[in-house]
Amino acid sequence: MPTYDYPCVECGHRFEHFQNMSDALLETRPECGGKLRRLIGTGAAVIFKGSGFLLDRLSKLPAELRAQQALLRTRYAVRHQAV
Ligand SMILES: [Zn+2]
């Protein structure tokens, strides 16, 4: 579930909100009635950082292990496409 950043256009207050992509957007901040914008929050950034870290780790593995990992990933992808 992604975290969204909601900066308030009126007062500049900014808060994070956990919600599903299918959930309705927050439009106004109850505390001040100001309009809100929605930005992808830090929760998503952590995920990107995490996968970058993983890729970095993989690139340092011996070639043999990396080939094995690539094979596993391909099998996984194929299995999920078939479903
Ligand atoms: Zn506000």
Q: What does it look like?
A:
The protein is elongated. The chain contains 2 helices and 3 strands; from the N terminus they run βββαα. The model has no long low-confidence stretch (mean pLDDT 76). With 83 residues, the chain is of the alpha+beta class. A 3-stranded antiparallel β-sheet has the order 2-1-3, covered by helices on one side. It has helices at residues 42-59, 63-82, and strands at 3-7, 14-18, 39-40. The chain has one domain. The structure holds zinc ion (ZN). Zinc ion (ZN) binds next to loops. The site of zinc ion has 7 residues, from loops.
Q: Element order, helices and strands?
A: EEEHH
Secondary structure class reads alpha+beta
Amount of beta strand: 5-15%
Total E-strand runs: 3
Helicity level, as a percent range? Answer: 40-55%
Shape: elongated
- Radius of gyration (Å): 20 Å
Low-confidence stretches: none
Number of domains: 1
Bound molecules: zinc ion
For the report, how would you describe the main beta sheet?
Answer: 3 strands, antiparallel
In the sheet with the most strands, the strands line up as 2-1-3
Could you tell me how far the N terminus lies from the C terminus, measured between alpha carbons in angstroms?
23 Å
